[in-house]
C-alpha cells in the first residue's frame, strides 16, 4: 500500500463540511457539551471568527481532512489577550497515528510566534485519551469544574489544563495576527515540525 502524503495547512471556509463531519460524532458523547451538532453553515461562521486572529490547522491526506486543531480567545476582557483556549479533534477512523499530538505541536509553535503565552484546555471527565494527550504535551492540571455540565442524564466534571507557551514578560508585546507571519521561514518550520510526526504518512508541510 502506498504511503499517503500528509499536509498540514490553515483551514478555509471550504473545509467546513469535512470539519463538521469530524466534530459531529463527538456531540453524541459527553466530550462535547453541545446537544446537537452544528450545521455546516454554523461551522463556517466559527471558522470565520477564529481565523480573524488565530490559527486553525487541518491535517489532510489525498483531499480528506483527518483532524484539526485550533486556538481561540480564553476570555473577552483585554487583560486575557495573551491567553488562548485550544482544542483538537481527530476523525474516528484515524486515531493512534499521532495526529493529535502532531497538530498540537505545530499549533503551539505558531502561537509562540504570534506572541501568546498561556494556553488552556478543558477536558470532560472521564476521558483518559484526552487527558493523556494533554499531559504528554506538557500541560499541567490547574483545577476541575465539578459537575458543571448536564448531558445524557448525568452531571459531568471538566478538568482544566494549562501549558505555558513561553516565559512571561513584564511588558509583553501585543499578539500578532497569523497573516503577518504565515509566509515566514519560522512559520513554515513550525508547520513542518508537526507534520513529520504523523505515523504512516509521507510528510509534506505547507502553510
Q: Describe it for me?
A:
This protein is α+β, with helices and mostly antiparallel strands. The chain is built from 5 helices and 8 strands, in the order βααβββαβαββαβ. The chain has an 8-stranded mixed β-sheet, with helices on both faces. Strand 2 and strand 3 form a beta hairpin. Helix 1 crosses helix 2 and helix 3 packs antiparallel against helix 5. It starts with a strand and ends with a strand.
Write the layout of secondary structure elements.
Layout (H helix, E strand, L loop, with lengths): L3 E7 L5 H8 L16 H11 L5 E6 L2 E10 L9 E8 L8 H16 L3 E7 L3 H9 L3 E12 L2 E11 L20 H11 L5 E3 L4
Parallel strand pairs: 1-8, 4-5
Antiparallel strand pairs: 1-2, 2-3, 3-4, 5-7, 6-7
Helix pairs in contact: 1-2, 3-5
In short:
This protein has 207 residues and is of the alpha+beta class. It has helices spanning 16-23, 40-50, 99-114, 128-136, 185-195; strands spanning 4-10, 56-61, 64-73, 83-90, 118-124, 140-151, 154-164, 201-203. It is built from five helices and eight strands.
Amino acid at each position: 500500500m502506498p504511503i499517503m502524503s500528509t499536509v498540514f495547512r490553515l483551514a478555509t471556509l471550504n473545509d467546513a463540511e469535512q470539519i463538521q463531519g469530524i466534530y459531529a460524532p463527538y456531540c453524541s458523547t459527553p466530550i462535547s457539551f453541545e446537544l446537537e451538532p452544528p450545521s455546516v453553515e454554523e461551522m463556517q461562521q466559527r471558522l470565520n471568527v477564529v481565523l480573524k486572529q488565530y490559527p486553525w490547522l487541518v491535517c489532510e491526506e489525498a483531499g480528506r481532512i483527518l483532524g484539526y486543531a485550533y486556538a481561540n480567545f480564553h476570555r473577552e476582557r483585554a487583560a486575557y489577550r495573551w491567553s488562548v483556549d485550544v482544542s483538537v479533534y481527530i476523525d474516528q477512523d484515524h486515531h493512534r497515528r499521532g495526529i493529535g499530538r502532531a497538530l498540537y505541536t505545530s499549533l503551539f509553535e505558531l502561537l509562540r510566534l504570534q506572541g501568546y503565552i498561556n494556553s488552556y484546555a478543558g477536558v470532560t471527565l472521564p476521558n483518559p485519551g484526552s487527558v493523556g494527550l494533554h499531559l504528554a504535551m506538557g500541560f499541567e492540571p490547574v483545577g476541575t469544574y465539578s459537575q458543571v455540565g448536564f448531558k445524557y442524564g448525568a452531571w459531568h466534571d471538566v478538568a482544566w489544563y494549562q501549558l505555558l507557551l513561553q516565559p512571561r514578560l513584564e511588558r509583553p508585546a501585543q499578539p500578532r495576527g497569523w497573516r503577518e507571519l504565515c509566509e515566514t521561514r519560522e512559520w513554515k518550520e513550525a508547520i513542518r515540525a508537526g507534520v513529520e510526526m504523523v505515523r504512516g504518512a509521507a510528510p509534506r508541510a505547507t502553510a
